[in-house]
User: Fold this.
Amino acid sequence: MPADPPVLLVSDHVEGSVHALTVPDGGVLARLTGRHLSEHAGFLALPGGRVACVDDRRGELLVLDPGGEEFVERAVPVAVPAEHLACDPSGRRLVVTTGLGRNGEPWSDLLTAVDLDSGEVARVRARVGEPGVTVLGGGDPLVVLRHREPGALAVHRFADLLAAPPGCPPVTPQALLPLPDDGHGDAQAPGAGLVFAATGEGVHRARRKGDALVAEAAIPWGEPARGWYLRLDTRRPALWSTLRGGDPDPLRWPEWTNHAWRHDLGTGRTHRTELGPGLVFRLAFTRRHTAFTRVHPDGDELVLLAADDTVRRLPLPAMDGAPCRGGTPWEGVQRRAVAASPGSDWVAVTRGGHGEVHLVDAETGQEAARLRLDTALRHGGHLALRCRDDGAEGDPVGR
Assistant:
């Protein structure tokens, strides 16, 4: 029997819609309206080609199954605005943390724990901030919250959170591990019981020991730059980030330097590849490439990095309302989202404000199709690309 085609999920979090499209023809499998997904919490890959996400307006965790009988398989009330979303390696136990939303400073200390199998849901109060989260698996899963200012990894037993009484009671971590105050970026290696947090000093790592964490040696960035994003490569045991260097003033963003950073967890070797100046942030994995978008006043491009470190660059059409010199790269401007599946060679890139998605064949580096939606995708929207058995759920952190 032929394999199921890849499915692209396209979220317009501003206008409030979600499309499920077949790739590469763009056929509409399903569509939701009135759904404003949290772009920051992103999409979380679950087993069987499903994804989880959070509707920030309705305050619901959604489990979407693009190939199932019902597109929305489950809707569970959760606290919002959603900051981060993660699950244990089984895909059963999920945690949603809350963050800034449209507020000027952190104000909510609520987090929600959900057991998809039992249907149990609990909300508790942890600590005001913008906490990252990972959920370590095993017979007794642990929830690890990454806090800032003061920085720490706070450990909670998932079962304790789920057993909390009504009324959103405060919870006290049963273990704390110090961390620098500027943490931003989380990942875990499920098979090794390791959790990672990106900071200015490098990638801090800790290993589970019982119901606590034991710190291991940090992984240095290797140059005067840092990564603000951290991701596990499910194709091989490796961590990826994008190193940003230069003057941190947002108005100087066209001069920022960017390098792809890869740390092989098996060999302990670190590789860096120059991507070019401007804004580079999130990345995506195809079967044999890693994809980045680079935004710059002199022209945007999709950068494809092959396993042998060969770099291929594809120019992207300009966006009306794109970031420009003299302004910041993220306030009131159009952006780009990028997505791929480790089970295919397709890369999807949005053209914010134009309602377009470029579909690129990573093997050839050529645009194969351009999908046009009936929504503008202001601020770039957000994307997820899944094949039913692509193994993307091996990274149990929302992206």
Notes: The first helix runs from residue 158 to 162. The radius of gyration is 20 Å.
